[in-house]
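User: structure tokens for this one?
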Amino acid sequence: MKKIVCFTGSPRLSGNSTLLLNEFLAGIDKNYNQIEIIDPYKINVNPCKGCLRCNVLKRCSVESDDWKDISTKILKADILVFASPIYFHHFPAQLKLIIDRFRSFMNIKLTDEGLEHKPWVKWQKDFVLLLTLGSSNTSDTQPVIDLFEYITDVLGEDNKLYSIKVRRMVAPNQINKDIDFLEALYRKLGIDVKSAQKDFEENVIIKKRCAELARYLTKS
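Assistant:
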């Protein structure tokens, strides 16, 4: 049985990244896997203080919020899923608070060359990024991709990172909309209406990829 912890970044119930997560979850056999979804907007997570006490305690020193419980779930998980829109080239603030607290999972030492990061315990997990963005260019996701490539590498060479990106998501529930909706939307936005057909087909494929990835990661 795989333990799967999912974090949602969208403040909208019908956000496109949340819908991508639903497609991912649909590919999981829930009889043989344990799934938990954590909504950063419904929990209490304080910002990292940069106090460096985790270098001594081997855990975060902030105990006035929900991090202890969340960090335990993260450590026990086999698969970590982050489904989020891209706001200003990165995660929304509520989800970024959680990522910043990952600092407590490792020791950080200052050297002449820079900072040396070493995990307290090496991880062996699958990381999944389900990212939606309003831009027509998926390069806006690169800061998040770069950060997770670093995180997965630092926390253990056996970690694996998978990412699925959907561009031009500017309306709630857009990923489920038909060609007529996309044509009307693109016309309103001044985007070439001819792109609607290709984008619709791309959205259908991406939703299937989410379910396929889930099946692949949770297969016995």
